[in-house]
Amino acid sequence: MKYYPVFLDVKDRDCLVVGGGKVGTRKALGLSRAGARVRVISKTFSPGLEAVEKTGIFLDCKPYETLDLENIFLVFAATDNRELNLRIQEDAKKQKLLCNIADVPVESDFILPSVITRGDLVCAVSTSGTSPALAKKIRKDLEHMFGPEYGQFLLLMGNIRKKLLEEGHDPDSHKKIFTALVEKNLPGMIAAGDETGINSILAQLLGRGYVYQSLVSQEQ
After folding, report:
1. Is 9 within the bounds of a domain?
2. 66-98, pLDDT tens digit by residue?
3. End-of-domain residue from the set 101, 124, 146
4. Which of 13, 23, 190, 215 could covalently link to 78 via disulfide, CB atoms 3.0 to 4.6 Å apart?
5. Residues 46 and 130 in one domain
6. Are 56 and 38 in contact (CB under 8 A)?
7. Does the pLDDT value for residue 53 go beyond 90?
């Protein structure tokens, strides 16, 4: 295995993207969606970045300096200048920071997989940098396999777990309940809009008080 797969919690972390073009835009938007505080350094910015600047992505129109790495959690070198990208990586290495050089996996500390998200469901596919085209194809296959109903299903499961814990149920007994819920093909029923069938299953496994619509309308 060439890479160690891991999901990073970047919420409220300071992350840096150097480069304001299309690649830097993708990196910045991905970090922002995961809750990071994102700073993008570049002399020019794509229209996509300029449109979202007020949503938590800070655009800094200036040349990159080594001091820009202070108090940074991780950094993306996403400029079209290979020499500058390598300098950023070297600076990051000295400060023991993880650095990704966009589109150059062999020189990066980490790479980004091809990802689909359905609410809390995150499916990541990587070919270890050998064939991005294959990773993209597999991602598209997964998009057909796992539709939006899986996001709703995980919302349902999370709120059921929360309700059970609030009611003082024994956590050790939850495994059987959740295994049974998974085996009932609830995602398929959600996709079909069969709330009556879902409520019947919930009543059978959990008893009264567990209603699909009220459960999925709650915040997790």
Report:
1. no
2. 999 999 999 999 999 999 999 999 999 999 999
3. 146
4. 23
5. no
6. yes
7. no
Tell me the pLDDT tens digit for each residue of 162-171.
999 888 877 7
Flag whether pLDDT at 119 surpasses 80.
Answer: yes
State whether 80 and 132 are in the same domain.
Answer: no
pLDDT digits (tens, 9 = 90+) for 147-158: 999 999 999 999
* Overall number of domains in the chain: 3
> Is 153 exposed, middle or buried, given 0-12, 13-18 or 19+ CB atoms closer than 10 A?
buried
What does the DSSP 8-state code read for residue 59? E
Q: What is the dihedral of CA 139, 78, 41, 100, to 10 degrees?
A: 80
Distance CA 197, CA 209 (A): 15
Q: Are residues 74 and 88 in the same domain?
A: yes
CA gap 138, 115 in Å, rounded: 10
How many CB atoms within 10 Å of residue 149?
A: 18
Average pLDDT of the segment spanning 209-217: 92
Residue with tokens 């995602």: 187
Helix axes 149-166, 174-183, angle to 10 degrees: 160
- pLDDT for 54 equals 62
CATH number at 126 reads 3.30.160
